[in-house]
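Input (structure):
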């Protein structure tokens, strides 16, 4: 269990103060676009503690001084510490059922470019690759490439390895597990590795959605699921406008189950199940 406080400069345990929370929250908002309101104060504190222990820093104020004086090297570590990375293979399965039908209907020889924006540890883009390989499209000469990005550099490194605990595949049937994964043996028992044929369709890159996009647009499909809920209204509107610009005409945008584009963007039309088509 993570403790709810860390020692201050005098060695006395205390929770993070409102002023300390606001100072860190402003850095998060400015550099990552993520809103951490007062209700997230203890969440922020718990996320920072592991990083502070690694640096042998015992107070929030001391860590803030360290962060601001070593911004170039420490900011990525700080962002990695506070970002949320909840994901799973084939999460929100209806999206992958739709993708399967979409791939099956593509004309022979089509080349499809897909962006997984906010890919976390890689389960989403690998799931896209897997469902493509399960479809009839490869036999007709259809090809895809998935560009996968995330602000968290540690997540990108884990995703590139393609190695997961066996528990990460919970819910996958045995046929899908055998087709797309290799089971570890010996010292790697209890782990699985994504097969090379799945990996070769995906490339991973670190990227902050609020900065310049070093991606090769336009895309046929963009998945940005359960990411923008952490952004404020202004940043959400700007982000969906940029997504529209990064999509081909009639391109598809997939968002999370708790998100919608009502009063956020008029450049997309809902086609159901949190899937949108670019119309402007």
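Output (sequence):
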């Amino acid at each position: 269990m993570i403790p709810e406080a860390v020692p201050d400069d005098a060695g006395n345990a205390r929770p993070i103060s409102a002023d300390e929370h606001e100072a860190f929250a402003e850095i998060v908002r400015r550099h990552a676009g993520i809103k951490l309101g007062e209700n997230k104060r203890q969440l922020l504190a718990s996320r920072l503690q592991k990083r502070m222990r690694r640096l042998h820093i015992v107070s929030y104020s001391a860590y803030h001084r360290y962060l601001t004086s070593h911004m170039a090297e420490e900011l990525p570590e700080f962002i990695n510490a506070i970002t949320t990375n909840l994901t799973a293979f084939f999460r929100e399965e209806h999206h992958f059922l739709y993708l399967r039908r979409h791939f099956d209907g593509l004309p022979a020889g089509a080349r499809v470019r897909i962006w997984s924006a906010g890919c976390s540890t890689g389960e989403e883009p690998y799931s896209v690759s897997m469902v493509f390989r399960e479809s009839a499209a490869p036999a007709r000469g259809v090809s895809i490439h998935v560009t996968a990005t995330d602000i968290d550099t540690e997540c990108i490194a884990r995703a590139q390895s393609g190695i997961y605990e066996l528990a990460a595949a919970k819910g996958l049937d045995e046929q899908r597990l055998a087709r797309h994964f290799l089971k570890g043996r010996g010292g790697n028992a209890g782990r699985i590795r994504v097969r090379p044929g799945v990996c070769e369709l995906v490339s991973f890159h670190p990227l902050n959605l609020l900065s310049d996009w070093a991606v090769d647009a336009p895309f046929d499909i963009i998945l940005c699921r359960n990411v923008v809920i952490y952004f404020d209204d202004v940043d959400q509107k700007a982000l969906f406008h940029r997504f529209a610009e990064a999509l081909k005409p009639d391109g598809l945008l997939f968002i999370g189950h708790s998100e919608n584009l009502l009063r956020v963007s008029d450049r997309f039309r809902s086609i159901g199940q949190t899937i949108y088509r670019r119309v402007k």
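Notes: The chain has ten helices and twelve strands. The two ends are 49 Å apart (CA to CA).
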